Please model this.
Amino acid sequence: MSNRPSIGQPISRLEGQMKVTGSAKYSGEYNTPGLLYGYVVNSTIVRGEIVSINTVDARALPGVIEIFTHDNRPSLAWFNMQYADMDAPPGSPFRPLHDNEIKYYGQPIALVVAETFELARFAASLVTVEYEEETFSTDIHVNLGKARAPKAGLATALKPPPPKPKGDFEEAYANSPVQASGEFFHGTEHHNPLELFTTTTIYEGEGKLTIYDKTQGTVNCQLYVGNVFGLHFKDVRVISPYVGGAFGAGLRPQYQLFMSVMAALELKRNVRVTLDRSQMFTFGYRPPTIQTTQFGANTDGTVTALNHEAFGQTSHFEDYTEVVVNWANMLYPAQNTLFKYNMVPLDVFSPLDMRAPGGSTGVHAIESTMDDLSYKLKIDPLQLRLINYSVDDVSMDRPYSSKELRQCYLQGAEKFGWSNRNPEPRSMRKGNKLVGYGMATGIWEAMTVPARAEAIITKEGKLLVSSAVTDIGTGTLTVMTQIAADELGLKMDDVTFSYGDSKMPFAPIQGGSFTVSTIGSAIKAAGKALRKKLFKKAADIDNSPFKNVAIEDVDFDNGNIILKQNPSVSLSFQEIVAANKGKQIRTINFSVPNVLKLKKYSRAAHSAAFVEVEVDEELGIVNVTRAVTAVAAGNIINPKTARSQILGGMIWGISKALREETITDHHFGKYMNTNLGEYHIPVHADIHELDVIFVDEKDEIVNELGSKGIGEIGLVAMPPAIANAIFHATGKRINQFPIHFDSLL
Ligand code: MOS
Model:
């Protein structure tokens, strides 16, 4: 281990300069001579059949190369087999251009390929379509009668079903002296990363492809393309060099990938397909959700009965679910519980995981109901959480691998100044504005999944590490370099981490907040194996000073192996490689979580958010003037990039509570605000003082790094803390998200 550890240091993003100076190339920036451009035509009906597509005018334009529709698409292996990607829910994945059936508004129905993007887009506007429309339904509110329970399926392995009922909820709730209940609605949200979804497919000849894709999983897309188009996996290379945000939108291969590859294979040309902003609303999204809660407590504040039920939307072809109702009993140790998740299939595309899927929705309902309970009990909301604090996960009857949530509550409250809060609603003012303080708890699962990594010592004594993982802007490159450097005792400058290429060792999709734990563990395993190998090679050298020395007796320090007892006894990595006939020393390792050990514990990151709002009741305007989020997420590898993750999550929380919603006009089954002008997100003027605390949390169980992941936990507690602060300010409990100004007037 290094004497100068970089883990725990606030290292700036290694690729930061390349990104801000524009030299980092994104998937839509790989240009080749003769590159062709595709533009997708989307359906303008919700459900029915295409009777005919007229492409005559579009084809007549000089420079238009081809127009693909279901009528003339190449016959592809896809249509002979069922293939599901790594994030596919149970069901049949959507197949672009499969036949003339329309399943949802905005469904891709044709691809125009032309010599320029502008020409392709203009030609697409000349394509006319005759449809036979059928009746449809897109409104979850009027279809609750069609709700059904999700089928169990392999793809839901990362999405556990709701915990089984315990005790007797009905009786316990009926007999509770204090009760709180709520009905909650969350609108649809689209991920809207700034970078549009683009694929540039380079046709390398004989069915060989190099694909630059915006994705959260290079291997996921490689397997998709191989399976769908019947290609050998080794002939398909997917590279995702930089990713301008994704938030879950890139967890599944998107249809621009299909279109770009189809056209490249058929035309034997290089083809780029880019979705425009409006088309970013024609695939996955966070589903609208209806929830109900009923919590019962004793007069001392002990919560004894928990009921949480959710209805989430899905498509007719896939059973998409979210983990919405599993969290209440993970947080609060009631013995009488009832949890249910229902799916409502509609004439829509399948939803898709979006940052803290399920958790950010469910915890809002839970934490606002707890807030309501605190007023009924006349117990401070923070105190109520402490009264119901549990070191165990009662929903699974097992302990947490670690849980420093209490420290999040205490340190967050201290930093925020929670004790200055007057418990009475509408009691605090600043000028003509009402001031409210609200708090809430956050929780997110700490997962680790299998992955591989390669580690090499070069003849210059430098370390090369690689994994197919992407970096969706979270700081993966930087953090992995830190982990690798520490494992070999090197300075970060002597380490190169290569990533974002399906040719590299296997990595799963980058999501679920599990990338640092997963790829970090693989790199640690590869680094450890490499140390052993280096040491063995060192000991095998003629006259080696390490002949009868055990690996425990040496240190790896700045490119040398040194004897702990006597640091002047050493061999450099360069000397070891030279003695290896100049051949670099290499290992590749597969790291798999220890399931037998892990299943004895629940593993989760926790947080507590404290929020101050100012509400102008004349205008209905809410300002989040201050917020503190305290996070317990195990070992924080890089406090700088981690803080950025939490800040991003907090801003997302402000967005979720107050801004973001994709509005559907159910008469047309169509989203009405498919642009960033009308799809509201917070701007600089909406963001004030945000503070992040990482509390100390040691976890020797969760994985070797002791890291729990921080991509999603920053979001979870914020929306309920905001809603609770609004209640404290105004006395109005608004459970419909986002909270619009008219509900405050
Ligand atoms: Mo995250 S929604 O798993 O990218």
Q: What stands out?
A: The chain has a mean pLDDT of 96. Residues 216, 247-248, 251, 353-355, 357, 511-512 surround dioxothiomolybdenum(VI) ion (CB under 6 Å).
